[in-house]
Amino acid sequence: MYFPIEEPDAEGIFVKRLNRFAGVALIGGGEALVHIHDPGRLQELLRPGAKIWARRRQGGKTQYYLLAVELNDELVLVDSARHNKIAAWLIESGVVLRGYQLLRFEPRFGGGRFDLLLRSPGGRGALVEVKGVTLEAEGRALFPDAPTSRGARHMEELAKAVSEGFEAHVLFLVFRKGAVKFSPNWDMDRRFSEALRRALELGVGAHAVKLEMFMWGLRPVGTLPIDLEPPR
């Protein structure tokens, strides 16, 4: 069982990041602009000299769209635009939230949106926020890799949804091979970490699924335990 990934049409060497959404890579013998959809820092991945895989873009300011980065002996997906579809596939395949039915993508709630709306086995609406995890340190998958006030707000909104009668869940998609557990990144973003812990105390469900990437697809490896405690 695997989630297929469209095969890239270019490989290259990363040179530098220009801003949150653009970088420079050597592709086909020359420098090219590459769109980076993931707004995280990705510092352990987007290093000068790292091998990347990309797709050619039609139109726009950048010539390529970044798909994945090679890091040592692993291939890491960095195309965050795919996260919602990957999450839906995991749910429909019974890897996580078994028995839940996908109703729609990007449902409105309050003044914003979540990523998925499900129907629980008992018939209740279940809102899901999806987060991709590309940072791993000493076996811990860590989120976020940069401060995210938006992420903290999502956790607060999930808790609010529970108070209004919904089920609510946060699903972490872990794309790092060496991860054996998931933790919020207290050192990077204490506000998000506290908001996550508080949301779980108020009834929000949390799930972390590890996926390994190959050329070209993703296979689920299993769920990871979640450790909410800050480092001592």
Mean pLDDT: 95
**What's the gyration radius in Å?**
18 Å
**What's the CATH class label of the largest domain?**
Alpha Beta
Q: What is the overall number of helices?
A: 3
Residue share in β-strands: 35-45%
Biggest sheet details? 7 strands, mixed
What name does the CATH topology of the largest domain carry?
Trna Endonuclease, Chain: A, domain 1
CATH architecture of the largest domain: 3-Layer(aba) Sandwich
- Straight-line N-to-C gap: 39 Å
Poorly predicted sequence stretches spanning 5 or more consecutive residues: none
**Which structural class matches the secondary elements?**
alpha+beta
List keywords for this structure.
43% strand, Trna Endonuclease, Chain: A, domain 1, seven-stranded mixed beta sheet, 232 residues, OB fold (Dihydrolipoamide Acetyltransferase, E2P)
